[in-house]
Write a sequence for this structure.
C-alpha cells in the first residue's frame, strides 16, 4: 500500500474518537438529505399518486367546451387499443345540495361536489372504490357513495340510509332524486372523495340533462412514463376536436407547484446541513493535524516534502468521506427501506410514496465524498506550513 | 536579539566521528538543526558536499535530507502509528526506492538487535529498543552524514553504552560521517573530533574552522 495512504489510515484509525466524529458528521449530512427526500418527495409523490389514482389518471382528457360530447364508449375503446393503456373511464362532475332526515331531524348540506362514474370501468382505471371503508361502491343507478365528511355533516349517514340530492341542470332547473347510501368513502391525505359524493354517471347525465356527454376521460397507463406518447398520439388522432390532453404533471400542476418549491427549499436546507458537516470535518481534521505536529516534523526531517504531508491529510479526508458516504448512504437506504416497507405515514395521513432514486442517492454520496475532501484541504494546507524544527519542538 | 550561534565556522571530513558538546542552552542543537537543514541561519551558509544549501528550494532540501542525511533524535521520534519495520522503511518509501527496501530494513534491524520486534507497534517497545530502531531508520538510505541529537540523553547508562557502541560500529563499518550532539562527552569516549559550543561560539582546541561538511 502507498505509504502516505497507509500512514493516513493509521493516523486516522488510531484516533477513533476523531474518526467517528468526522464520519458521523458526513453520515448525518447524508441522512438528513435522505430523510428529507423520503418524507417530502414521498409526500409529493403520494399526492401525485392519489391525484392520479382518484381523479386525473396518468392522462386526463377534457374538452375546451367543458363537456366531451363524443361517445365515451368510443373514446374508451380507442384508448384501450393502445398497449400502454391499462384502462380508461369517463367521469362527469357537478355540485349538489343534499339533505337527509335522521331521527326526525333534517340535515342539509349545499355545494357538495358530485362525481358521476361508470362503475364497471371506474374500478379498472381508478382506485376510488378501494377507499370505500363501509358498504360498497356505486353499483346501481340510485346508489350513492358518500365521502366520510359528507356523511358526518348530514347527521351521520350510514349505509342503507335514504337521502335526497338536488342539482341544477343545464337549463337552470332543479333536479331532485332520491338515492340509497351504498357506501362511505374515506381516504387519508385529502385527495380522495371524503368531501364529495359519487353516483352512477348515467344518473348524473340524466339529472344534468347531458345525455351522452362526459366531463373528462381518465386514462390509466400500465407504463406511466409513456404518458406523453399517449397524449400526443391521442391529440394527433383527433385533430379536429377541441380536446385537451394533459399528463398528470400538467393536469395537477396547480396543486403541485407549491409543493415543488417547498421541496426545493427543504433540499436547500439539507445541503446546508451537509455544509455544516463539512465545517465539522475541518474542525476535527484541524485537531488531528495539531495532534500530529511531532509526526509531521519527524516526517519532514526524514525527507517528506510539503506535498507528501498535504497528500497524507487529503487521504484522511478521502477516507472520512468514503466511510461517511458509505455509512450515510447505508443508513439513508435503511431509512428508505423502512419507510417503504411500513408504508410510512404521519398522524394517519396519506402513506408516503417512497422510491429509491438511485441517481440522487449516488449524487448525494459523491457530493459528500467530494465535500469531505474539500473540507480537508485547509487542515492539510496548515499541516504543510509547519516547519520541521518548530514541529520537533513540540516533543 | 539573542544569538543562538555566533561566528561558528568549521568543516568536517567524510567518515569522521564528531562530537558537538556543550551545556544545556549553549546552542549545540541549533547547530545540528542547521547542519541538518531543519533550520536556516539568519546569516552565514552551510555547505554540504560542496553545495551551498542556502540556495536550495524547500523540495530540494527535503530530498537532500532524505538522501544525504540521517537523523537520530533524543526521544527516538518513531511514528507510533507504524510498526518498527514500517518506521525503518519510511525514509526509503519517501525516497520512492522501495526495491529491496524491506530486505535492507530487516538486515539493519537485525544489526541493531531488533529482529524479533519488527512487527511491534513503535509505542510497544522500550526506550532503548526505540532508539536502536531510530538508528536503523537513520541509516536505511545510506546517508552520507548521520546527525544525532542527544541520542543517549533519555537512556540509562547500560542502554546508552549499547547505543554508543552501535553507532561507532556502524560509522566504522559503513564509513559514514557521524555528528553527535551531547552534553555528556564521557559516554562516547574517543571521537575523531570534539567541537565545543559555549554561548553560541564554537571552539575546537585552537583550530579555527569553517562550517563545511565534506563527504
Amino acid at each position: 500500500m502507498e505509504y502516505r495512504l497507509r500512514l493516513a489510515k493509521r493516523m486516522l484509525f488510531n484516533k477513533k474518537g476523531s474518526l467517528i466524529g468526522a464520519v458521523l458528521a458526513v453520515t448525518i449530512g447524508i441522512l438528513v438529505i435522505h430523510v428529507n427526500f423520503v418524507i417530502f418527495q414521498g409526500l409529493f409523490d403520494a399526492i401525485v399518486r392519489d391525484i392520479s389514482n382518484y381523479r386525473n389518471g396518468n392522462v386526463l382528457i377534457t374538452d375546451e367546451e367543458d363537456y366531451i360530447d363524443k361517445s365515451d364508449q368510443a373514446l374508451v375503446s380507442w384508448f384501450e387499443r393502445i398497449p400502454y393503456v391499462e384502462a380508461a373511464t369517463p367521469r362527469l362532475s357537478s355540485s349538489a345540495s343534499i339533505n337527509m332526515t335522521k331521527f326526525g331531524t333534517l340535515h342539509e348540506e349545499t355545494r357538495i361536489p358530485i362525481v358521476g362514474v361508470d362503475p364497471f370501468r371506474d374500478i379498472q382505471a381508478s382506485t376510488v372504490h378501494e377507499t370505500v371503508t363501509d358498504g360498497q361502491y356505486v353499483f346501481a343507478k340510485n346508489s350513492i357513495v358518500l365521502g366520510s365528511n359528507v356523511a358526518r355533516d348530514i347527521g351521520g349517514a350510514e349505509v342503507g340510509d335514504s337521502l335526497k340530492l338536488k342539482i341544477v341542470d343545464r337549463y337552470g332547473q332543479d333536479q331532485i332524486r332520491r338515492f340509497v347510501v351504498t357506501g362511505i368513502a374515506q381516504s387519508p391525505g385529502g385527495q380522495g372523495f371524503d368531501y364529495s359524493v359519487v353516483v352512477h354517471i348515467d344518473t348524473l347525465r340524466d339529472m344534468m340533462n347531458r345525455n351522452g356527454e362526459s366531463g373528462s376521460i381518465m386514462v390509466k397507463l400500465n407504463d406511466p412514463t409513456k404518458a406523453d406518447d399517449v397524449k400526443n398520439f391521442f391529440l394527433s388522432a383527433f385533430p379536429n376536436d377541441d380536446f385537451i390532453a394533459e399528463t398528470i404533471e400538467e393536469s395537477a400542476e396547480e396543486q403541485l407547484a407549491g409543493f415543488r418549491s417547498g421541496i426545493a427549499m427543504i433540499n436547500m436546507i439539507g445541503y446546508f446541513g451537509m455544509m455544516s458537516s463539512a465545517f465539522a470535518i475541518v474542525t476535527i481534521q484541524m485537531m488531528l493535524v495539531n495532534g500530529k505536529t511531532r509526526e509531521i516534523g519527524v516526517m519532514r526531517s526524514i525527507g517528506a516534502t510539503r506535498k507528501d504531508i498535504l497528500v497524507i491529510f487529503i487521504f484522511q479526508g478521502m477516507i472520512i468521506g468514503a466511510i461517511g458516504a458509505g455509512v450515510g448512504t447505508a443508513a439513508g437506504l435503511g431509512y428508505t427501506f423502512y419507510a417503504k416497507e411500513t408504508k410510512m405515514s404521519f398522524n394517519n395521513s396519506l402513506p408516503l410514496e417512497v422510491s429509491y432514486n438511485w441517481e440522487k442517492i449516488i449524487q448525494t454520496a459523491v457530493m459528500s465524498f467530494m465535500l469531505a475532501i474539500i473540507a480537508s484541504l485547509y487542515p492539510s494546507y496548515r499541516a504543510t506550513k509547519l516547519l520541521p524544527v518548530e514541529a520537533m519542538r513540540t516533543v | 536579539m539573542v544569538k543562538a550561534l555566533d561566528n561558528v565556522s568549521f568543516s568536517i571530513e567524510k567518515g569522521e566521528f564528531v562530537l558537538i558538546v556543550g551545556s544545556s542552552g549553549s546552542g549545540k542543537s541549533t547547530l545540528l538543526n542547521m547542519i541538518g537543514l531543519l533550520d536556516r541561519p539568519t546569516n552565514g551558509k552551510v555547505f554540504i558536499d560542496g553545495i551551498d544549501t542556502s540556495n536550495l528550494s524547500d523540495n530540494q532540501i527535503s530530498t537532500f535530507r532524505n538522501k544525504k542525511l540521517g537523523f537520530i533524535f533524543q526521544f527516538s521520534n518513531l511514528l507510533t502509528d507504524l510498526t518498527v519495520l514500517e518506521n525503518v522503511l519510511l525514509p526509503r518509501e519517501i525516497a520512492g526506492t522501495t526495491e529491496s527496501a524491506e530486505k535492507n530494513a530487516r538486515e539493519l534491524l537485525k544489526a541493531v538487535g531488533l529482529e524479533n520486534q519488527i512487527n511491534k507497534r513503535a509505542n510497544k517497545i522500550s526506550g532503548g529498543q526505540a532508539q536502536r530502531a531510530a538508528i536503523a531508520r537513520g541509516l536505511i538510505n545510506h546517508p552520507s552524514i548521520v546527525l544525532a541529537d542527544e541520542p543517549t540523553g533519555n537512556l540509562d547508562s547500560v542502554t546508552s553504552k549499547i547505543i554508543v557502541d552501535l553507532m561507532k560500529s556502524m560509522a566504522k563499518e559503513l564509513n559514514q560521517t557521524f555528528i553527535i550532539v551531547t552534553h555528556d562527552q564521557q559516554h562516547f569516549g574517543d571521537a575523531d573530533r570534539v567541537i565545543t559550543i559555549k554561548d553560541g561560539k564554537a571552539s575546537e582546541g585552537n583550530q579555527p574552522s569553517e562550517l563545511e561538511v565534506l563527504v
About this structure: The helical segments of chain B are 28-35, 58-68, 84-95, 101-111, 127-139, 157-174. The domain at 11-79+142-213 of chain B is CATH 3.40.50.300 (Rossmann fold). The interface with chain A takes residues 33, 36, 38-39, 58-59, 62-63, 65-67, 71, 73-75, 77, 79-82, 86, 89-91, 93-95, 137, 141 of chain B (CB under 8 Å). Confidence is low (pLDDT under 50) at residues 206-210 of chain B.
